[in-house]
Fold:
Amino acid sequence: MASKQAHKRLMKEHADLSKAPPPFIYARPKESDILEWHYIIRGPPDTPYEGGEFWGTVIFPADYPFKPPGIKMLTPSGRFQPDRKICTSMSDYHPGSWNPAWSVATILTGLLSFMVGDEMTTGSVRSSDADRRIYAKRSHAYNILQPKFRALFPEYLDPNQAVDLPNMGDTPPKPASDVQPPPVPSTTESTGGTSPASTAQRANNAIEGLGVKVQQRQSQLETTSRPVLKAVVAALGLWMVLSWWVS
Structure:
């Protein structure tokens, strides 16, 4: 039986979840036992579980929130062993790491994050992505065959008439490993300006080109000046001869 504090806390969390459930998660307590919660996780897009309907339980201790709950997934998923406790830092496998500030929403969001990863722990299994996609496709058919699921979630028995789970339209954030780093800034301004590096290179090219032109010009001048100098010397020599002869 739940303590007064546990009952009050879980009733408040139920009200909060009804108003603003986390993405891809729906949870509510059993009507006859506030400590027994049932959840449905909808497989997020871009994962092997996409479109799946994964049902499970969170069983709280009587002195919650001072002790952690036990967590199970009942629907076969290819990620967890059905109806077996899952070892996470937010479960009763690790009471020393439990934080009383954590809530049902925190626990199930953490479970979803753990589910889409590949870390192995007690209660998890190894499966290929192809197998997990098959489990996701069969998940609803499995759930509606379970009497307890039918009693707890009668509104989801007919997929053609069922109201979809709340807050199922959001796309979860990508993993950090998938986040692309920002592009390296170009050394050229977007306005069409030229970077210092390219300016220096162009200057060097211009200087080198100018040097070649100067050398060519000097060579041309030398080639052109030689005949002129010879003509001047000859003219001076002729003038000196004529001057001597006249005198």
Q: What stands out?
A: DSSP finds five helices and four strands in the chain. The mean pLDDT is 76.
